[in-house]
Amino acid sequence: MNFSANFDRFQEVVRHRRSCRIYEQQALPAGLVQQALELAMLSPNSSNMQLWEFHHISTPAVIRSLGPACLDQKAVSTASELVVFVARRDLFRERADRLVANQLKVMGKEKRSDLSTPERKLIDYWDRLMPLLYRHCCGFWTLVRKLAVWWTAWRKPQYREVSETDMRVVAHKSVSLAAQTFMLAIAAAGYDSCPLEGFDSSRVKKILGLGKRSEITMIVSCGKRSAAGIYGERFRLPPADVYFQH
After folding, report:
1. Which of 25, 40, 102, 111 can bridge 182 by disulfide, Cβ–Cβ 3.0-4.6 Å?
2. Sequence spans of domains, the chain
3. pLDDT at 163
4. 3-class SS at 12?
């Protein structure tokens, strides 16, 4: 079924994208990775908190130093460039403040006292609720949040995933959405990528100078695929095994 030329083109991009394990020794076009990352920044993310960082590695010496930390995978050692996708839950307060400042600007208001009740509720979502959800202290705030959810859920449907582990999952899901947008952008340009979870996170963070609170979601290598870098035909389960319509 044809929907539009744009949909057909998108299908081509999705079908072209494969996890490439070996790349040709060919440089990527200048600026491609940066532009693809700028598109990744437009990805949907939880509450628009944007708790992410994208570390673009284009220096050959740094790529070589990351090889052992990435378990000597050829997808890294033969890559032209790398991107380390990082979740930054610890930046929740700074990001929330920036969202509040932006929303006040959009509303044309300077002070909270100038806000209507609906406007104040929107501001409070980022100014109070988001910090409450992301704040952590030895499990104390998880207990507080779970008790509040338990009490509220007796009366009405309630969002229940509020533990520190739950919020960690939320942050990494948002970063993963950005990584997928990035990989599709690379594929649309006719180049290739590979998402990697096999790495020593402590060593990678040390090489890149990332703080202890930074959490690496994945590393994505980029380059021009070698014929040997695509391991056979793509295998996926039949739609009947995974698609259910209700």
Report:
1. 40
2. 17-87+166-229, 91-152
3. 85
4. helix
